Structures are given as C-alpha cells and as structure tokens.
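Repro:
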Amino acid sequence: MWRRLLARQNKNEPESVLYDESYYLASQWQLIWRKFRRHRLAMVSLLVIIFLYSLALFAEFYSINDLYKRHVKYAKAPPHTLYFVDEDGNFHLVPFIYDLKQELDMDTLQRNYTEDRSKRYHLRFFVEGEPYKLLGFVDTNIHLVGVDEPAVYFPFGTDNLGRDLYSRTIHAARISLSIGVLGVVISFGLGCLIGGISGYFGGTVDLVIQRIIEFIISIPQIPLWIALAAALPAKWSSTQVYFGITIVLATVGWTTLARAVRGKLLELREADFVMAARISNMGDFDIIVKHLLPSFASFLIVVLSLSVPGMILAETALSFLQIGIRPPAVSWGVLLQDAQNIRSLSQSPWLLIPGLFVIVTVLAFNFLGDGLRDAADPYKQ
C-alpha cells in the first residue's frame, strides 16, 4: 500500500505493479467485472440488450405511427428506402424518402408499389405526432422521428391491414422481452428455493423432490407448453393471458436450475461457514438464503442470463402457434403469425423482420451468458 501511495505521488511506479496490487486487493465482484470487460463480444451484447430494452420501455417515443392504425392505402407496402442523394446528384445531410404510389396488377390482382420521385419528404426528428403517455403517466406527443404530412414513413413496411410494422415490432418487444425476464425471475425463485431445500436437507425430502423433477423433465417440453397454454380460458383478457403465459413458462423452466442448485448445496452444506451459522442458532431457511445461495451467486447470474432467451423463444413459439399471447396484444410471436402463409411471405418478405429481433435478442443473451460464465471464475487466466 505504501508503495502504491508513493507511486501516486511520484508517478514513478510501473503500471504493472499497481495493477497487480489492485488485482489482489479487489473484491470478487470487481474481479468479475474486470474480466468481463475484456470480453468484447459480451460487452457488445450487453449494449445491444440495453438498447432493446430501452426500445421496449420507451416504445411510444420511438414509434412513428399508432400500432393499431390502418393505412388502407398502403396495405402490404414495402419498407421505405432512405436517400441522401437526390436525382440531380445533390447530397442532403438529412435523409429523405419518396412517396409510394400504388398500382394494381390486373393479371395477378397484386398491389405493386413504386416511388413517386416528384414527392420528396425529409425526415424530421423530435416531431409531434400521436399523443401518448410516456412511462404510463407523462402526457406528450413527441416522437423521435417522422415526416411531414401528408406523407407516411414505414421503415419496416406494413402488414396485410396496412399497419406500421416498425411501430408494432417496437411495441411487441415490450411483451416478448418482459415475459423473458418475468418468467425467468419466477422460475429462478422456484429453482433456487426447491433446489436449495432438496440439497440442504437431503434424505426423503431430496428423494421426493428429485423424482418430481425427473417426471417433469421426462415430459416433452413443447407439448407440455402447448397443453398448459391451451388450458387458459378463452375469455381471459390480454393482460390475464400475459400473466398466464408467464406462469406457464415459469412452471416448466425451474427444474434444470433446481438440480444445479441442489448439487451446489450438497457440496457446500458441510462447509465451515455453514456449521458456524448452525451453531449460532440461525434458521435453516436463513442459512440457505443468506449464506449458501450467495456463495455461488456468480453461477446463478450466468444461469439467469442464459435462461432468458429460452423464455423468449418459448413465448414466440406459443404465440406463433396462436395459443400464446392473443391479439389485440402484440408480441414478436403474434407478428410472425402473418408469415405463416407462404403466399403472403413471398409477396411481403419484410413480415419476417420481427423474427430478426428474436434472433438478435437470443444471440445477445447467449453471448452475454458466455462472457459472464468466463468472468465468473476471475482467478482463472
């Protein structure tokens, strides 16, 4: 420490010495964060996840049009193309779009859209649009981007009913991403609690719990999800279905974590700090929650991050099969229902864009989990 203080004063101490001293004086969480920062792919994934959740949290601000508004004139319209250079070769600092002109092919009865180069509209930032409540209580009508009327801007095109796919995708992220987190939190709590009881007490309690877990695991996961989701009453509102689907996914997803927690507790329950807690008359529940589970918290965080994409994929699959989230609520799975028809997909391939959000989210969480897994053992080089 004295050498470190002298180095700060004289600035003559090599950086490597200071780094070595700070390394040995750092806490476990500081070591984990230091190693995690060196995992570039995990850091990029963390930024992507933060960006996606910010989109979901402020969906009304980022959206351009009302997600339920039908633009009949632009049904199945392709995504607008942004331009910086006009037909005369002039560069524009602010991007612009051309208006879309619809033509009906009398042979195939298919709508064809062409750009009307005589009508050019520049993008505007922080524009006034549809009123909404920011975060549910702040009245405002400011949107991040838009165009002047009478033009409309569809970055991702429109669906069969002329609804803006971009705005619907952003709002759908709110349900899909929140179900992933909420479902994992519930299954995480169940897995830690049941696995902790099984590993700590052992004996008959452990035997019964493990047989129940093995029975649940032996059931094919997707049919079990379908059966539980189909059991939800058809008269339930969108909010009730949302929480019902979350509970369905959490009910099945806790078993793997419970077995992992059980194994850890079987290893640690005879440790010295556990014996000291017992001698001090601490209750069994407090020993599990306050001592045993925090002793391998880094492992639990890794499991938590790797479980979220599984929940998101499960919700997307159930909604895609029309037994999950139901319209008028929107999730990425609900939006992908329009891509079930091969004819619609061949004519409107942009309907698959919500699927790209699912892929990016799942990859980001997996890469984040890999980085956390490597950083969970900070002393390993």
